């Protein structure tokens, strides 16, 4: 049986391993939530795309307790951990690559923002176009898509892209040195070895929720898909190295 306290311990470990790839992770969270707050609505409706166990969603609710945050992911294990750790969140099990996923959200009107962190790069460019096109149908005019991720520019500005990677790598080295947190694979190996998570692990295997590689790592892939979906303004709102917060405004 997965208890609340055990889930919180696993998610503290999750946050730590994520910081190993993103030493400025909390700063990016803050910038993203600042943008949602800047919409000027005390009770915004926000969709968290590829929410994982809810790390961003729970921070959004801490800042904006009257917000309605709908946390969407296809991974049964991460959703299971999130539900046990954060009962105040609303999780929806849905694959963003499957047409009609917005019908599962329980919306009774348009959303004010969609947010995501370190998730949408797993989706292929062709599927990404469908995700953004469907998303546009449930965002209000002027609503935002805020996507924090490592997005590269080597297809357009290779010299700048090399510098962006160098800035990120130097910051990581400064922050951690030889004392790097456990990596993604080690965290998942530990999860697989926990008997209390056996059922969720079986569900995850059945769902085929494991990820392999980065399918849409280029900034241009996301910008192009967003413009095609009808987002009229697309730009970087915050950046350090190749770690950026991409913002798009629905027309």
UniProtKB/TrEMBL annotation:
The keyword Methyltransferase applies. Residues 46-143 form the Methyltransferase domain. GO terms for molecular function: methyltransferase activity. GO terms for biological process: methylation. It comes from the Bacteria. Keywords: Methyltransferase, Transferase. It holds the Pfam family Methyltransf_25. SUPFAM superfamilies: S-adenosyl-L-methionine-dependent methyltransferases (SSF53335). This is Class I SAM-dependent methyltransferase. It comes from Nonomuraea salmonea.
